[in-house]
Design a protein that fits this description.
Elements: E1 11-14, E2 29-34, E3 52-57, E4 96-99, E5 102-107, E6 110-114, E7 123-129, H1 144-149
Length: about 160
């Protein structure tokens, strides 16, 4: 039996992307606005880091739009059918994502970032500085279809 527990957002995304998109996520600035219940002191020292690790919820997705079967990424038959936990979209059981935006500056409760692939209004469940030392160990490898699928992921919207 699965354990069920609740989470409360610590922040919200303000500005940036206005609707979900598969690609062209780069170069857009947004604010991660920390909830006022948290004192600004909770961000002390964060401004010395270049990147964040942000856990957020796909709040625009329907809880009924979860795919618990293998399917081809982006429904492209050239790519192999893969299971739910291979995909990085909203069709996951908890509809959570993790992003690593660049931190530009902090103004009070506002963290100004770029390259955040969440949309305006997105609830942020947690945030932390990115520690490269805690990143993947060893050689990182992915199937060829990943790079075929994502050549424009970090391209800027004007490049469409």
């Amino acid at each position: 039996m699965s354990e069920v527990f609740g989470l409360r957002p610590v922040a919200r995304v303000v500005g940036g992307h206005t609707e979900p998109a598969d690609d062209y996520q780069g170069g857009v600035t947004a604010i991660i606005r920390l909830n006022p219940e948290y004192p600004a002191e909770t961000l002390q020292g964060l401004g010395t880091f270049s990147h964040l690790e942000v856990t957020w919820h796909f709040h625009l997705a329907s809880p009924n739009d979860v795919a618990l079967q293998a399917r081809s990424p982006r429904n492209n038959p050239r790519w192999p059918a893969t299971g739910t936990f291979v995909h990085r979209n909203h069709r996951r059981p908890n509809q959570l994502a993790v992003s690593h935006p660049r931190l530009l500056r902090i103004d009070g409760h506002d963290l100004h970032v770029t390259d955040l692939d969440a949309v305006d209004g997105t609830p942020v469940l947690d945030l932390a500085p990115w520690f490269p030392t805690m990143g993947p160990r060893g050689e990182v490898h992915v199937p060829t279809w990943v790079d075929e699928m994502l050549p424009n992921y970090w391209a800027e919207p004007e490049q469409r």
